[in-house]
Known about the structure:
The structure holds two protein chains of two kinds.
Chain A: H1 11-17, H2 33-43, E1 64-65, E2 68-69, E3 72-73, E4 85-86, E5 93-97, E6 107-111, H3 118-122, E7 139-143, E8 149-153, H4 156-161, E9 165-167, H5 177-192, H6 199-213, E10 219-222, E11 232-238, E12 243-249
Helix pairs in contact in A: 5-6
Chain B: H1 2-30, H2 36-49, H3 59-74, H4 80-87, H5 106-117, H6 121-131, H7 137-144, H8 148-168
Helix pairs in contact in B: 1-2, 1-3, 2-3, 3-7, 5-8, 6-8, 7-8
Amino acid sequence: MNSPTSTAPDPFELLSSMRSPDIDRYLEPGDEPAADALLASILAGSVEPSGAGGPPRRRWPRRVVGGAVVLAVAGGGAVAASRLLAEPTDTASLSCYSDASAEPAIQVAMVIDPSVTPAQQCAPMWSDGTLGTSGAPELASCVTDTGITAVIPGTGDTCVDIGFDERAPTEPGSPNPAAAITNAISDTWSAEDRCIRDVDEAVAMLEQIIADAGADGWTVEVLQPPTDDMPCVGAGVNAQAKQIFTAAYPDGH
Amino acid sequence: MARHSARREARFDGLFRAHYSSVEAFVRGQFPHADLAEVMSSTFATAWRRLDDIRVEAERGWLIGVANNTALNSIRGRRRRDARDEAYRTITFRGPAELHDHDVPPETLEHLSVAFERLSASDREIIQLAAFDGLTGADLGAALGVSPGTAAVRLHRARQRFSEHYRKQDQP
Lengths: 253, 172
C-alpha cells in the first residue's frame, strides 16, 4: 500500500477513510456554549447575514466550454417594441433570479432554451431547491441594463420597479441559432473534457457545429491564439456578428 | 401562525445542531485565515432567513455552499478565483489528521498529496467536499450550486483523474 500500484486502493476511498467522525457530531445543548449563544441570537433575530447570502451563485452561463465561459456577446440587437417592452441584446443568455431585485440573493445563469419561454425555463428551479422548493411564483421576464433576459418573481411592472425593462413576449420554438450553437459548443467541449490545445482542431470542431446547426452566414474567427500561460482553446459566440471566436484560457480552469 | 413559527424554529434548531460541527470543520479546514465566528454567524443567519428554501436532504450541502461563498467573499483584496484556488490548493483535513484513526502510511499520504495537487481547482474542490465533508448526491449538488446529477458526473470524472495521477507516480 506504500506505492500507488495498479492494485492499490482507490485514492478517493483512501482520502474518505481519513474523514473525521467529528463532522457528524450532533450538538447537544451545553456542548458548545458559543454555538448555543449563536443559535439563540439567530432565533431572537439579532444576527443578520453579512451579505454573501444564499447558496452558491452561479454567475456564469450553465453551459461552459472546457471551463471557459461561452461568451454570448451582443445578440439580436432588436429595438424595444415600446417604452417598456424590450428585446434582449444578448439572445443566448438567461438569468433566473431568486428575488425581485437587481441584486438577488441567488442568480442562476444559463443559455436560453428556445423551445420554452424564459419563465418556463426558470420555473423548475423553484421546485428543485435551486431557488425554492414550493413551486414557482408568478414570474416575469425582464431585460437587464446589460441586455440579458432575467426572470424574476413578479409581473412586468416589477421589472420596471427594479430598473429593468419588461421583455417583449416570446414564442416558444422560435429558432435561435446563437443558443443552438452555444449549446452545441458547450456540449462538444464538455464531452471532450480536456484542454484543447490545437487551434486547427478547435476550428474544425466549430465549423462542424455551424454545419450541423444549419446556421447560414456564421464564421469562425481565431481571436486569441493559445499561449504558454493560456494553452487551452475556448470558444465564444458573437450572435450579432454571427461569429464564433476562439479565446485562450489557462489549463485547469 | 404561532404553530408554523414553532415548527420553523424546531426545524432550524435541528438543522443547526446536526450540521454545526460539519460546517465549522469545513471552514476551519478550508479557510484557516477566515473569521470563523463571522462565517458561521452569517451562514446560519442566512439559513434561518431562507429556511423554507432549503431541501431537507441537502441541508449540509446548502450550508457548506453558503459558508464557502461567505468565506471566499471575506477574503478581501483578491480575486475570487484566486482565493478559491488558494483554498483548494492542497489536501486539507477536517481537524487534526492524527485523530482520524486511519492507518494510511506517510508515503501513501505523500502520493495522495502529489496526485491531488495535479488536479484542477474544480476537481480538488469536489474531491475535498466529497471525501472530507462527506457530501454526496443532493448535498454535493447544493454545495456546488449544480444539480445532483451534474455533481455526480463531475465527481466521477474528478475521481478518475485523481486515480490516474495517483497511479502514474508508480510508472517510470
